[in-house]
Amino acid sequence: MPKRSEIWNHFNSIDSVKAKCRYCHEIVSFTSGSTSNLFRHMKRKHPISFNKRKNTEQSTEEIPVKKSHLTSIDTQNLSSLPSTSLASIHSEVADVAPLSSSAHKAPVIQKSLTDFVEVIKPLHPSKSKEIDEQLLKMIVKEYHPFSIVEDQEFRKLIKLLCPSYNVPSRKYISNSLLPMIYKREESKLKSKFNEVNAVCLTTDCWTSVNNESFIAITAHYIDQNTNLQTHLLKCTSYSERHTANNLASHLQSTVQEWELTNKVTAVVTDNGANIVSAVKQCNWRHISCFAHSMNLVVHSGIAEIRVTTDKIKALVEYFKRSSHSLTKLHNTQTQMGFPKLKLKQDVPTRWNSTFIMFDRVLKTKQPLIATIALLNLQGEHNITTIDWEILESAVQLLQIFNEITDEVSSENYITISKIIIFSRFMTDHVSKFLHTNYRPEIQSMARVICANISNRFSNLESVEIIGQSMILDPRFKNEGFSSDVKFRKMYHSLATKLSFIQIPKASLSTDVPSSTTSTSSLWREFDAKIKTLNAKQTPVSASIIELDKYLAEPFLNREANPLDWWRERKDLYPRLYDVVLKRLCIPATSVPCERIFSKAGQILVDRRNRLKSSNVSMILFLNKNLH
């Protein structure tokens, strides 16, 4: 059958599905009966030849394209074309015949640049959806306002990167995309919790810059791969009075919503009477935040050197208020060869902030003394030699509290098993400052801190959940206890708990070798005796055997991850592993909630002070849980 389409003026047919271009000799596939691919090839690769032939066939006379018209196209626009297209245009323009001088020829039509450029294809819906989700992730992870999608420069940037992508509106992101992704991630997290045996909760309250109260609840657990996981369950606006009954009701409703009612092993909070009472009303074990208790201990000691502390605070505040004085201090630091450091102001609600203020003042002591003299501030801010001596001793005394706070504030490592050892470290360290070679103020400070440590931490070894956690940490076991008597008491408590754990028979294959009954009369009596002895083994004796076998194992390196150790031995110690899941998931502090509030403070800023509390909750949830 003859081919009637004009496209065959530019192609040679090879077979029923392939044709060869007469210009570039490229093989182009086409569907029988459809020549769309062939037309597309000509428009993309040989637009001039295609249009020239087309115009020639439509006219009774040959109307060649005038070369001068093509060369008059803006060269800057042509430079944006692909190199292959430019080469094609130049080669084809060179072959065009000059315009005839006949007066009866039709006028030449100027070509537009769009005739030589392929039309931008729209994005596939799946790709557009992927970009939408990444845009939302950028907003919630990097604390951008939703209005960033309306910023002209941002939209220009997106158009340069992906011209075919349509940036969604602010309302679409906040009213549609945000709730959709939130629901999806919430569903994923609930599926994870279905596989969890035990979770520990932390909770705390916070007030925003808009004087709006929020309450956060985080969950901590050990997953199926024996990895420690942390997730934010909820951080919502809370307008009710913070009574124990109201807080207990809120905690219970949240736990029921997440289907964790029978999985809560403990709740870690600060020492507020209302929240402690609320946890007890829910019949959950309460663990006091170790860092919060340490902060109270430290501040009780700092009160003993209040005169020196007030002088340092006033001096730091002066340099914070006066830009001229701060510039003088920085210039002095540079001239004396010291690093250019800013002074740090303490914040009562920030743990260790007073220690950080003291430490920074000491690090810039010499430039600070020189600057005070240059500015003639000796009368207003007179830091005496005694004050400097007290300050240096106080920093030495408080250093250990700063180091411990940093270590117990981790969310990615086991911390509950360390606090008994840390409490003993603190007592031993502070006791060294009771000697007479320190100033009376420092001795008084040390006595108060020692008394508070004893008052708050002396009974930690008797708390079942904490003592068992230390035994189950292969880095410490029995060596973390101050006496063998306290260890034996916790040992029996743990053995009793193990005896109530029912383990499938398949998991007990490594405990006791299965006895066999021989058909031979030679071994029949012996096999019967062994079978009787195995039958007499009780859950208590089996638990003690497993516990003793574990304690006889070599100690794990202190810097190693105990969960890695348990992952390799969970089948060897099935009862102990069951308790490990319920104990080592407990964080020593409520720092995870504090970090949530720090993020909330970055979200509710002046540019987003009208953000709805429901959107704040969803943003915080995705910020913490979206990966």
How far apart, in Å, are the first and last alpha carbons? Answer: 60 Å
Helix content: 40-55%
- Low-pLDDT runs of 5+ residues are 59-104, 509-515
Average pLDDT confidence is 85
Individual helix count: 26
Number of strands: 8
Shape: extended
The fraction of residues in strands falls at 5-15%
Sheet having the most strands: 5 strands, mixed
Class inferred from helices and paired strands: alpha/beta
**Sheet with the most strands: spatial strand order:** 6-5-4-7-8
The radius of gyration computed from the alpha-carbon positions, rounded to a whole number of angstroms, is 38 Å
Keywords:
627 residues, alpha/beta
Structure description:
- The chain has 627 residues and is α/β, with parallel strands linked by helices.
- It contains 26 helices and eight strands.
- It has helices at 36-45, 47-58, 67-71, 75-78, 83-94, 125-141, 152-161, 170-193, 244-257, 273-281, 290-302, 306-321, 323-335, 353-363, 365-374, 385-408, 419-431, 440-457, 464-471, 484-499, 521-535, 539-551, 562-569, 574-583, 591-603, 613-625; strands spanning 11-13, 18-21, 27-29, 199-207, 213-222, 228-237, 264-269, 286-288.
- α14 (353-363) packs across α16.
- The two termini are 60 Å apart.
Q: How would you briefly describe this protein structure?
A:
The protein has 627 residues and is of the alpha/beta class. Helix content is 53%, strand content 8%.
